[in-house]
Every structure is written in C-alpha cells, then in structure tokens.
Amino acid sequence: MQNNLIVSPTALTFAIILVAVALAINFKEHIGLEKDVLVGVIRAVIQLTVVGYVLTYIIKVDRVWLTLLMVAIIMLNAAWNARGRANGIPHAFVISLAAIATATILTLLLLVGAHAIAFVPSQVVPITGMIASNVMVATGLCYRSLNTSFHDQRQAVLERLALGADLKQASIVIVRTAIRTGMAPTVDSAKTVGLVSLPGMMSGLIFAGVDPTKAIMYQIMVTFMLLGATSLGSVIACYAAYPQFYNHDLQLR
Amino acid sequence: MTPIFELKQVGYKVDDQQILQQIDLTIQPGEFVTLAGPSGSGKSTLLRVLATLLTPTSGELWYNGQAQASYDKITYRREVSYCFQQPSLFGETVRDNLAFPFDIRKQAFDDTKATEALESVDLTASMLTKAITSLSGGEKQRVALIRNLLFPPKVLLLDEITTGLDGTTKAIVHRLINTMNQRGITVISVTHDEGEIAAASRLLQVVAGRLEVSADAK
C-alpha cells in the first residue's frame, strides 16, 4: 500500500515542468500572472513543507492543546484571508472569524460527537482545514456579492429605506443573493461529486489503497459536512456584514 | 400652529463641497411647496435631507415641533414619504411593489386597497399581475407613486416625478397629488416643469445651495 504513495524529490522536480507550462502560457498570451504563479509556487512549497513537519510533530506528540492550537491557527488564517476579499467592509476580520469559527467548531463537534471522526490530530487537523477553507471561500464570495449588489442596487435600497423599511427589509433581497452565491460552489460540487470530480479526501484514500466503496463513505460525510458548514458560514457572514453598509442614521454609506 | 418643518441655518456638505448652505425655511402642515432652480443647485439634496436619506452637516431641522434627529427613522420615513425621479420597481410584478408597504408593516396585502390605489391613477386591477418589465415609463411612475401613498403619509416629497411623462400621465399624477394635498398631506415638490412652476401656490428658488427667493406665486 505504501508503495503507491512515494513521490520522490526527482518526481517533484519533473513536476516543475508543469509550472513551466503555466508560465509559458502566461508569457505567450500576455496574461500577466507570471509573478503570481511564481509566488504561488514558492509559497506552496514553503508552506506545505513547514505544515508537513508541523503535522508530523503534532500527530506524534498527540496533545489536545496542540491540536486545538492548530485548529485555532487554521481558523484565524482563514478569517484573515476572507477579510482580504471584503473590499472595505468594516469589521470584516471579526465577521469572518465569527462565521468561520462557528461553522468549523459546530461541524467538528457534530462529527466528533457522532463518532464520524476521532479527536486525534491526524483526523481533526485535516478536517478543520477542509471545513475552514471551504467556509473561507464561501465568505469571500458572500462579500463580493454584497459589495456588487449594494453598488448596483443602490437606488432600489434607497427607495426601500425611503418607504420606511428597516435595514433587514431594505437588504433582504441582496442578503439572500449573497448567501446563495456563497453556497453555490459547495452545492454545485455536491451535485457533481463522483460524476465530474473525485474530491480530495476520496482520492487521497483511494491513493492510500483504501477500498473505493469505503472511501465514498468518507466523501459522503465530507459533502454533508461542507454543505452544513458553508451554509452556516454564509448566513453568519452575510447577516453580520450587511448592516455595515449603513450608518447610524439608517442611510447607505 | 406648529410648523410641519422648520429649518434653521441648515447646511449640507460632502468633503469640502458645500451643497446646501444656511437654509432657513418654515413649512406649515397642508402646504403645497414647489422648489425650483437650476440643475445641481441642491434642490434634490434638500429634499433628501427632509427625507432623512441625508443628515444635515450644520443647522437645526425640526419636524412637527421636534428635532428631526430625535425621531425613529423608520417611523419618520413612513410619515415623510420620498418619491424618486426615476423610481426602480421591486420584484417581478406590480403586485410585488404594492405588497411592499404592507410587508414592511407586517400586514396582509389588501387587494381592495391596492385596486383603489391603481384606479386613482387610471390603472386597473388587472395590472397587479403585470410584469414590471412590460410597464411604460408613465405606468412605472404611477405604480411607484401609489406605492408611497397606500399608507398615506403626512408629507409627500416629490423629486421631479413628472419629468419625461406625457401630458395625459402628468395630468393624472397632478390630479392624485392635488387630491392628497386637499386631504391635508403636505406636498413639497421639486420640478423643472414650467407649468408646475406657474401653478405653484408657494414657490421657492434654490440657487447654488441657497434659498434665493421665496414668493407666493399664486
């Protein structure tokens, strides 16, 4: 089983050819992402190497506090990244952290409580990463949708306010659209899972030699988990973010 | 009688740009006030300040004997209703728009009331199911106007609502506004329309952010 998993440094070096392909396309088509591709590659190598060693250590020592610390670091990082997509929405870091932490912790508690996973670092840390990253993407999409809609539908929002609507009544159409946008990738991937993509966790288990019929059980769990987490995260992020578009006098900023 | 509006040295500025300055104005309940003046003079800004869609940056603004700032904004806006020059309609049908005032008051939609409102601007009940995308400019403006009037406000603020309308539709809109004014609703109307200016019972000119002339036109 282990033989299937060996990626030698030589093999990785050859994989750099694929990066060269991406760079060549960038140059040829004048896309202008060369710098981002290079930064992305260098960051991926450094971050993954560090995480590899950190995870090895955490799994080896198997301490609850260390596992929880890792969970906290993942959530803080995810919130920081989501904040970057808020494009000026006030308190975006706190809102993102509330959305990501609530969705991640609740989902983790449910999974551990239902004995779907054990509270061991080798299971809790990767699952946390999976949940937090999906909620991070969902939150970022929610922010983008809120920003676009409040800009494009400014007049309609003003009219609702002028008619005596409260902030929720003036914004609910925009909030619903943003929640839908945040959840869309997860819902779409749930619809096509297995048909279009063999997702990361399932692929990893199959790579590791686990019977595909067993691997799907985990994937089904992951699909349910991500649906719940992104819904919860999107709802929290949108409901906490939309009032930030107004001032104390219930006027659009 | 307590004035419905009392403005003392009201000003509004954005960054360094003074849009309204030193506006002193008293309006009595039931008055019909027409605001005229060149484009960009601050008429619409004044109207938006009265509607609490903008907050004055200087001066005092009293509504019904009480500082405007002390009012609950939602209650205030239901009493002082602002109509936009180019209204945007909500949802998909005319009904969605007429249902909105009921929804925000958590009341069930009243078909009879909606039909009466439509008829007051020469539209019929069959309009309720009509898609907003299929309405003409005049129909849109009339639907938007009755959306403001389904729960009659104390003050109606009109921001050039007849601009671009044909003569017949203008007459229908004027008829409804006059009826509302006769029922005691205070009307403050911004306009460029020469006919409306000529017919004004109290005409105020806004020039470069100031109230230049105050005269009783009729």
From TrEMBL, chain A:
The chain crosses the membrane at residues 6-25, 37-58, 64-80, 92-118, 124-146, 192-210, 216-242. Signal peptide: none annotated. It comes from the Bacteria. It is found in: Membrane. It holds the Pfam family UPF0014. The keyword Lipid metabolism does not apply. The keyword Ribosomal protein does not apply. Keywords: Membrane, Transmembrane, Transmembrane helix. GO terms for cellular component: plasma membrane. It is a multi-pass membrane protein. Belongs to the UPF0014 family. This is Iron export ABC transporter permease subunit FetB. It comes from Loigolactobacillus bifermentans DSM 20003. The lineage of its organism: Bacteria, Bacillati, Bacillota, Bacilli, Lactobacillales.
